[in-house]
Amino acid sequence: xxxxxxxxxxxxxxxxxxxxxxxxxxxxxxxxxxxxxxxxxxxxxxxxxxxxxxxxxxxxxxxxxxxxxxxxxxxxxxxxxxxxxxxxxxxxxxxxxxxxxxxxxxxxxxxxxxxxxxxxxxxxxxxxxxxxxxxxxxxxxxxxxxxxxxxxxxxxxxxxxxxxxxxxxxxxxxxxxxxxxxxxxxxxxxxxxxxxxxxxxxxxxxxxxxxxxxxxxxxxxxxxxxxxxxxxxxxxxxxxxxxxxxxxxxxxxxxxxxxxxxxxxxxxxxxxxxxxxxxxxxxxxxxxxxxxxxxxxxxxxxxxxxxxxxxxxxxxxxxxxxxxxxxxxxxxxxxxxxxxxxxxxxxxxxxx
Length: 352
Ligand code: ADP
Ligand code: MG
Known about the structure:
This protein is α+β, with helices and mostly antiparallel strands.
């Protein structure tokens, strides 16, 4: 059993609350991602698990055992950082062997384990190279092999893809995913990239200013965000702020601009709300009329596989629509109508 638990953990640096009253539990074999902007406390959370830093208050457990006061060397944790942090003067094989030598593993076993770990990251033929003779993606795979070679209870990854260019990032991302699944190792990965978090994790821990904003599956966090921060951090969102009005079986949000935008029947009664409507849930109809609201294309952005439109409604309010396919791109200034399924609008309490 290799769960990770935080019980009301805080880490303060002077006045800075790097981690502020965090409680969470990561299950055995789970891939959890800590997602948040720069400075939100992500690296500090990993340091607390690894034992590199101690908490100001609260308790940390690994596999049910209280490790709050245990030294880093006595925690069986594998770490991969953003920068590859390989020893440049050592060969790849020696880099991977390093944690085993520190643990005084027998020579013959070291050779076997290094071979096995390099095979796991598909670098079995690269053992005799120096790190400088490898691509960035290969170096990061060596770092991964070095982090798992001593069979850690927990794998911690701090922005492991951040230094890689886009194509390599996708390769290493796939590598991490398949490795984690094959080994079944409890993994916490830190990232500020929502696509990485959404595509890799069993659950996402969204962090802002040292505080947990939401812990959920990627699907739930994306479609049912607990607050505006989570909604906005996980992807583009139209925020429909206004008063909820129920008209028979239908409901609308009455915006300050005067627009009445359809939303699903809500659990809450009338009052201030903030509707979250994802741009990909907004359809666009050329020529105006027939849709729910009409407006004019202010801006269109081509993404290859899709086009994103910013549409200014007659009232002046702006909505974003993200439309798959890009064979026909509407010009700026085109009159369009927008439509969506009313129950796609996720309702949050209004801020006012
Ligand atoms: P992230 O990894 O999300 O970018 P960090 O965990 O590195 O964020 O930092 C969280 C906050 O704690 C930041 O405000 C940072 O400046 C502060 N901080 C982190 N480490 C230290 C330290 N050793 N001394 C002082 N402040 C620190
Ligand atoms: Mg960091």
